[in-house]
Amino acid sequence: MSSRVWSDVDRYITETLVQPDAALEAALAASDAAGLPQISVSPPHGKFLWLLARLANARRILEVGTLGGYSTIWLARGLASGGRLISLEALEKHAAVARANIERAGLAAMVEIRVGQALDTLPRVEGPIDLAFIDADKQNNAEYFRWALKLSRPGSLIVVDNVVREGKVIDAHSREASVLGVRRLNDLLAAEKRVSTTAIQTVGIKGYDGFAVALVLA
Ligand code: SAH
Ligand code: DHB
Ligand code: MG
Predict the structure, then answer these.
(1) Which among 17, 43, 85, 92 is placed 20 to 30 Å from 67, CA to CA?
(2) Does the CB atom of residue 13 touch ligand 2 within 6 A?
(3) 178: buried, middle or exposed (CB in 10 Å: 19+, 13-18, 0-12)?
(4) The domain containing residue 114 runs over which residues?
(5) 135 lines ligand 2 (CB under 6 A)
(6) Could you tell me the distance, in angstroms and rounded to a whole number, from the CA of residue 1 to the centre of ligand 1?
(7) Is there an atom of ligand 2 within 6 Å of 42 CB?
(8) DSSP letter string over the chain?
(9) Digits of tens for pLDDT over the chain (218 positions)?
(10) Model confidence, pTM
């Protein structure tokens, strides 16, 4: 089993089932043209985020880590009518690309991007949120999760991207900041009685990784 077949199958799933449209493809093209890193969620993962937003009947969504707004567009399309999404991004350059992409997707009225270090902008986010997607710098994952939980209500979902990192997550001796961040998040998730969590390993065009989904119980 190799990453070649993972990518081929991801493309097959994308072509047959996901069918991303012009606005989503334009968002990726504009992000590439601006030199942004190619680390947006894959089309199947984007559609999964949309599906979670729909299932949650989400009226308020919080995203941490906007990049070019690809995941933002999928999530915002899943908002219930009248719903709003706030996405937090450290870099003005990324936010500018994302704003143009979101505008092109016809979602500007529902989406607000706030620029700054997320730990500085999170205290001004108003809850309750129905869904959070955490996908920024991995070393701060635990703090972002704490904020998402604080802004949640029973029934809210908190999704965290990149929690497997090619299996490096099980290396208890890792010195990589991102791996340490994911492990610290998992320790917190395990100890936190107000959520119940699982993590799903994934393969595809982005290699081998995974995401965690936590349901807020109380
Ligand atoms: N969610 C996006 C990908 C996000 S990539 C998608 O799937 O389409 C991670 C983003 O987090 C980058 O744009 C990076 O600039 C941003 N980021 C990194 N550190 C941050 C911080 N401390 N606060 C806010 N954003 C941060
Ligand atoms: C990286 C970050 C991501 O959010 C992702 O989905 C993949 C890779 C990274 O920083 O390498
Ligand atoms: Mg990610």
Answers:
(1) 17
(2) no
(3) middle
(4) 3-216
(5) yes
(6) 31
(7) no
(8) --HHHHHHHHHHHIIIII---HHHHHHHHHHHHTT--S-SPPHHHHHHHHHHHHHTT-SEEEEE--TTSHHHHHHHHTSPTT-EEEEEES-HHHHHHHHHHHHHTT-TTTEEEEES-HHHHGGG--S-EEEEEE-S-GGGHHHHHHHHHHTEEEEEEEEEE--SGGGGGG-TT---HHHHHHHHHHHHHHH-TTEEEEEEEEEETTEEEEEEEEEE--
(9) 579 999 999 999 999 999 989 999 999 999 999 999 999 999 999 999 999 999 999 999 999 999 999 999 999 999 999 999 999 999 999 999 999 999 999 999 999 999 999 999 999 999 999 999 999 999 999 999 999 999 999 999 999 999 999 999 999 999 999 999 999 999 999 999 999 999 999 999 999 999 999 999 98
(10) 0.98
Q: Which ligand is nearest to the CA of 24?
A: 1
Whether omega before 44 lies within 30 degrees of 0, making that bond cis, reads: no
Residues 6+ apart with CB under 8 A from 120: none
Q: Which residues have CB under 6 Å of ligand 1?
A: 39-41, 65-67, 70-71, 88-91, 94, 117-118, 135-137
Q: What is the CATH number of the domain that holds 52?
A: 3.40.50.150
